[in-house]
Amino acid sequence: MTAERIIRKYPNRRLYDTAQARFINLDDLRQMVVDGEEFVVQDKSSGRDITRSMLLQIIVEAEESGEPLLSTRMLRNMIRFYGHIMQSAFGHYIEAATEQFMQQQDTVERQFKQLMSGGPMAAMNDLLRAQMGFFGKKDDGSGDSKK
Questions:
Q1: What does the alpha-carbon distance between residue 51 and residue 26 come to, in Å, rounded to a whole number?
Q2: How does pLDDT run across 82-95, given as a tens digit for each residue?
Q3: What is the DSSP track for 81-117?
Q4: How far apart are CA 42 and CA 48, in angstroms?
């Protein structure tokens, strides 16, 4: 198992990837998340873990450009849970729901790729065969099943 990458944030707002020994930007961090890479962002001065705040910054920038993922209503509801007795439960619920959604999305993508692996015509042929098999076995009312 590889160790988490350490990204250091300098007071001048620059980010330094210690694994690659180079400066990176917020888009690079976003791509690391998309690629499933684990990393920790540390404040260079204090050594404090500021990963969450950097991830929130990525979300803010993504929300401001393009189609937002989080509606105003959803954000208001989330804010209402801060300081609420159910804050922790709500956070765990959102995390579990997101994980389940991602697993379902992976399953759908995998099934679609498998379906399309032979090309669109093979997928249409498979679908047609399945439908013909369904209709071929349908009872015609005579007591005999069509084959």
A1: 12
A2: 999 999 999 999 99
A3: HTTSTTHHHHHHHHHHHHHHHHHHHHHHHHHHHHHHT
A4: 5
